[in-house]
Specification:
CATH topology of chain C: Rossmann fold
Order of helices and strands of chain B: HHHHHEEHHHHHHHHHHEEH
Shape of chain B: elongated
Number of helices of chain B: 16
Helix content of chain B: over 70%
Number of domains of chain B: 2
Distance between the termini of chain B: 48 Å
Number of strands of chain B: 4
Largest sheet of chain B: 2 strands, antiparallel
CATH class of chain C: Alpha Beta
Order of helices and strands of chain C: HHEEEHEEHEHHHHEHEHEEHH
CATH superfamily of the largest domain in chain B: ABC transporter involved in vitamin B12 uptake, BtuC
Chains: A mainly alpha (388), B mainly alpha (386), C alpha/beta (257)
Oligomer: heterotrimer
Chain lengths: 388, 386, 257
């Protein structure tokens, strides 16, 4: 892999404090860190919308579809100025997006086929153009292939300014139309009946997503761009049930992935920034999937086991209740042996019932306490309420 | 044409066929994007396989890389099952992560591995003829020709052996299960073949082109036929055509062969997308226009049948009340007159005998949805076809 | 009782037509699903739209509300086009039409009912929040206001949707299968709210599946199967003849009464 213009190699022994000082003092590192942070924030923010609209893979298609635009912009203008190339990328990304919609709307091809088609065909055409450009004798073409995998090291201050301005614009629109965006994302038909122009909102959101993707191409590259969009949003979704918090969290996760990814790739030799950022973002996702208190797999499993245990306890108690019911004196002792026939009974459950003061033990005999009897009687009523 | 050129075209064609077969089923099963995911996430498998075998064409490496592809599929399904994210998000999360791991593995071991990420993504078909397979001192052709040839032979063998099962499980998974074919087995079998094909093809044509060769010919064929066998045949033909014409395009432009083949696929798809006789854009738009007129005509006739009041049957009413624009109202009126469906007396429209019968029949069909009654109407009306 | 309501809400006595549909033809992908529908819905009725699957019941509502664009025909709400009368109309979509895993709370969803009167950009304030809380109270969901919507039962979700429509404080309510997949308690709660709405002089139009409950719940009914079969007071037209015309050969339903 060609990796020109790598971030100046920092020694591996450098400690955190030195690194932070370096971020503030070193122009290149500061620019890259700021750039990736802003990029992570804006893609995380907009990614939340893409994820909630079930358009997760659209980002992948758009980023690939942007490639021929970059090549054509270069062929027409002969300029390597990143803003010019981004305009080309933006146009071809938008064409790809609307073509995908056209294919889905007017043919029987399914959305994933349409996405895969546009993604691979545009990318292939882009490659044709890039290789064609490289063979041109006059071309100062070197550097176009940075858009494939991205090269954060080529970011300059003006790029970061552009990112900041667009992020600001995006933030402004987001705050301005927040209510409309939320309504549109949740229930488009309802938004229509309330008199909102849903086409306008749709085009607004889609355009900003395309814009964010195009912005990130130089840094993260065509291939990995979609992860920047999805990963922070998918991680953020696990921690909150509020759209606004999700968007903010996704922006934070995205920005952190950018900063951490830059730091790690700067402190190691031979590591390009894009893949490292994606790995960091993926780590956020895995962590969130497992450790989120409300949705996470770990706590879900713990709750599942706890529920099952509760259920076993309740079943045993109910079984005892039925036996005790037959006697006038509820505390009449019974032999433990009867319980052995009951599935789900173990010594442990019995001990637990004793601990909770539902049952008293006397040698090989057990008897229900007053408290245990009442609890068991209530179980039935509760069950009836739950079922309803 | 020298022998290297012939060999390149041969390899490209075989790759195209080997991709078109699983691709057709992926497109029909709405799993096209899975091929994109597989093609990216085999990278770490390739790198690890390369550590072990030191040979890009070794069967072991191909199997190891294909295994990563299957792991991707399983991982995606596992994440989908948790319900933590939407289904397509799962795909979008898994493959960039695996691809990144691959890129980093290569970067960290740059000195030991002569693997180029660009080459993995884009392939370099032009170099394929230089890596020869030599057995007992005899040169029996380029290695990648043998690799892809073997994969293709296996694919065709499996296709013929399990055609019935594949067909049923693709169109009706429930039926397949009730007949005793495990849909899961066929699903993972297909995923395995797709992964192996992707790995076998990537070093000739690159990961992204594999995706294009899987999806584009199948999608193009899908727009032309509904018959599975014909669809497979067409997809193969489109793939081979693009492979050969793409090669010459690259030759002429002095550009990437993979990119050129993809571009030819794109042009082919664009043409079919626009001009396919039934499902193409132009046909669909023409049919929609036709249907709009026919629906309008029927609406109009129905309206006449439903209303005996003169007020409702006045010529102007069509415009005011039914809410049509002038042009449309006139088209409908003319069409009805031309077909002797209506009479106009003093600007009052009424149904003729023919119009009345026609309307009753159409309504019967619309309500009962029984085809038999309107066989003869199908010739005149788009509306009642398919 | 039944007679009294019908009398009170019959078009002759109130004189107002709440919804008028003229020659409405609607198509999905240019395949017509509704043909030449003429319909007058008098003010103050509680009306069921019944018909077999694929009869176009939801389509009729969606076309009236402008979600689908009709091929022909027109709709007026109290004599004016829908666009001018939006604020008089509230809508309860099918529960399955949205993603219930969306990150939002019950109260938040109900607040959305106020967005229409707020218009573009303006944010909901205390007044809107109060209205939303009142609506939650009405459907018995106040204790669940902060609950993430995916953690609500099907019946509770339906009540949230109903509350969202109540917040709109409209004159005409369109509901797409509000009893679909809800528990018995919710069904009773919903029908009581609908009856309250009618008492307050509102017009309620409900896509309904369960023919058995039509006479009990509704006072007005429209039979629909691609064409309009019949419309009118339940006591006059809810009979085997119309049911057969709508559902096919010899359809019989045991009508209570």
């Amino acid at each position: 892999m060609r990796r020109k213009g790598k971030i100046p190699a920092f020694t591996e022994t450098m400690d955190l404090k030195e690194y932070i000082e370096l971020v503030f003092n070193d122009y290149t590192l500061r620019t890259i860190t700021l750039g990736t942070a802003i990029l992570g924030a804006v893609t995380g923010m907009l990614g939340s919308f893409a994820v909630l609209r079930k358009q997760s893979l659209l980002g992948d298609a758009i980023s690939h579809a942007a490639l021929p635009g970059i090549a054509i912009a270069f062929l027409i203008t002969g300029s390597k100025d990143s803003n010019t190339l981004l305009v080309g990328a933006l146009i071809s990304g938008l064409i790809g997006t609307f073509w995908i919609r056209g294919i889905i709307a007017k043919t029987h091809l399914k959305s994933d086929t349409a996405l895969g088609l546009i993604l691979s065909l545009f990318f292939g055409f882009g490659m044709l153009l890039l290789t064609f450009i490289q063979k041109q004798p006059n071309a100062n073409q070197a550097g176009l292939d940075k858009y494939l995998f991205g090269q954060a090291a080529t970011l300059v201050e003006s790029d970061v300014w552009l990112m900041a301005i667009i992020t600001g614009l995006c933030l402004f629109v987001l705050l301005f139309f927040w209510k409309e965006f939320k309504l549109f994302l949740f229930d488009t038909d309802y938004a229509k009946t309330l008199g909102f122009n849903t086409n306008f909102i749709d085009i607004l959101i889609t355009s900003f997503i395309v814009l964010a993707i195009v912005l990130g191409l130089q840094t993260v590259g065509v291939v990995l761009m979609s992860a920047m969009l999805l990963a922070p949003a998918a991680a953020a979704r696990q921690w909150t049930n509020s759209l606004s918090k999700m968007v903010v969290l996704a922006a934070v996760f995205g920005a952190f992935s950018g900063v951490l990814g830059t730091a790690i790739s700067a402190s190691q030799n031979n590591l390009s920034t894009g893949p490292v950022i994606v790995i960091i973002a993926s780590v956020f996702v895995i962590f969130s999937f497992i450790f989120s208190p409300s949705r996470g797999l770990l706590f879900r499993q713990i709750r599942f086991i706890a529920n099952r245990r509760d259920l076993e306890l309740q079943k045993t108690l109910a079984f005892m209740y039925h036996i005790a019911e037959t006697h006038e004196d509820i505390s009449h002792p019974h032999t433990i042996k009867i319980l052995n026939n009951f599935q789900g009974y173990t010594r442990k459950t019995l001990q637990k019932l004793v601990d909770k003061n539902y049952v008293t033990l006397d040698g090989t005999m057990w008897s229900l306490t007053e408290k245990g009897f009442e609890t068991a009687a209530n179980l039935y009523n509760q069950q009836a309420i739950k079922d309803e | 044409m020298n022998s290297a050129q012939i060999e390149i075209q041969l390899i490209a064609s075989l790759v195209a066929i080997a991709c078109a077969i699983p691709g057709t089923f992926l497109v029909l099963r709405k799993m096209a994007m899975i091929s994109d995911a597989i093609s990216h996430s085999i990278l770490p498998g390739l790198v690890i396989g390369f550590f072990i075998t030191q040979d890009l064409n070794s069967p072991l490496l191909i199997l190891l890389a294909a295994l990563t592809g299957i792991i991707t599929v399983v991982l995606v399904e596992r994440i989908q099952k948790t319900g933590l994210v939407k289904e397509d998000t799962a795909i979008g999360l898994v493959f960039p992560a695996l691809f990144s791991i691959g890129v980093i593995l290569i970067a960290k071991n740059a000195n030991d591995i002569h693997l180029d990420v660009d080459a993995v993504l884009l392939g370099e078909l032009a170099f394929a003829p230089f890596d020869r397979l030599i057995i007992a001192g005899a040169d029996i052709g380029p290695k990648s020709l043998w690799v892809i040839g073997t994969i293709l032979a296996i694919t065709i063998g499996l296709l013929i052996a399990f055609f019935k099962e594949l067909k049923i499980s693709t169109f009706d998974a429930g039926l397949a299960a009730s007949l005793g074919f495990s849909p899961a087995l066929i699903h993972y079998g297909l995923m395995t073949m797709a992964s192996i094909t992707t790995v076998g093809a990537f070093d000739a044509v690159g990961a992204i082109l594999v995706v294009a060769l899987m999806i584009a010919p199948a999608a193009s064929a899908y727009l032309l036929t509904t018959d599975l066998k014909k669809m497979l045949g067409l997809a193969i033909a489109f793939g081979v055509f693009s492979a050969i014409s793409g090669y010459w395009l690259a030759h002429w432009l002095d550009a990437s062969i993979a990119g050129s083949i993809t571009t030819m696929l794109g042009i082919l798809f664009l043409i079919i997308y626009l001009f396919a006789p039934n499902k193409g854009l132009i046909a669909v738009m023409y049919r929609e226009k036709q249907q709009r007129t026919e629906v309008s005509l029927l609406t109009f006739l129905l309206h006449l049948k439903n209303h005996s009041e003169e007020r409702e049957r006045h010529v102007n009413h069509l415009q005011e009340h039914i809410n049509w624009q002038k042009v449309r109202a006139k088209t409908v009126l003319d069409l009805a007159l031309k077909n002797n469906m209506i009479l106009i007396n003093n600007k009052i429209v009424s149904l003729t005998q023919k119009g009345d019968e026609f309307t009753s029949k159409a309504i019967d069909y619309i309500i009962t949805n029984e085809d038999a009654q309107i066989e003869d109407m199908k010739d005149d009306f788009f509306l009642f076809r398919g | 009782m039944e007679n009294k309501i019908v009398e009170k809400s019959s078009p002759l006595s109130s004189g107002n037509i709440a919804v008028q549909v003229d020659d409405l033809t609607v198509a999905y992908n240019y395949k017509p699903v509704l043909w030449d529908i003429d319909l007058e819905i008098p003010e103050g009725v509680l009306m069921a739209i019944v018909g077999p699957n694929g009869a176009g019941k939801s389509t009729l509502i969606k076309a009236i509300l402008g979600i689908l664009k009709p091929i022909a025909g027109s709709v007026s709400i109290y004599g004016k086009p829908y666009d001018e009368q939006r604020k008089l109309v509230a809508y309860v979509p099918q529960k399955g039409s949205v993603d219930w895993d969306f990150p939002t709370t019950a109260l938040d969803v109900v607040m959305m009912g106020t967005y229409g009167s707020l218009g573009w950009i303006k944010r909901p304030g205390q007044k809107e929040k109060k209205a939303a809380l009142e609506a939650l109270e009405k459907v018995g969901m106040l204790p669940f206001k902060g609950r993430q919507i995916s953690q609500l039962s099907g019946g509770q979700q339906q009540r949230i949707f109903l509350a969202r429509a109540l917040v709109q404080d409209a004159s005409i309510y369109f509901m797409d299968e509000p009893f679909q997949g809800v528990d018995a308690t919710t069904e009773v709660a919903i029908i009581n709210i609908l009856k309250d709405l009618r008492k307050a002089g509102k017009t309620v139009i409900v896509v309904h599946h369960d023919l058995q409950t039509v006479p009990e719940y509704f006072d007005w009914v429209t039979f629909l199967n691609v064409k309009k079969i019949a419309t009118g007071p339940v006591k006059d037209i809810f009979n085997d003849d119309n049911l057969t015309k709508t559902y096919g050969i010899n359809y019989k339903v045991s009508i209570q009464e």
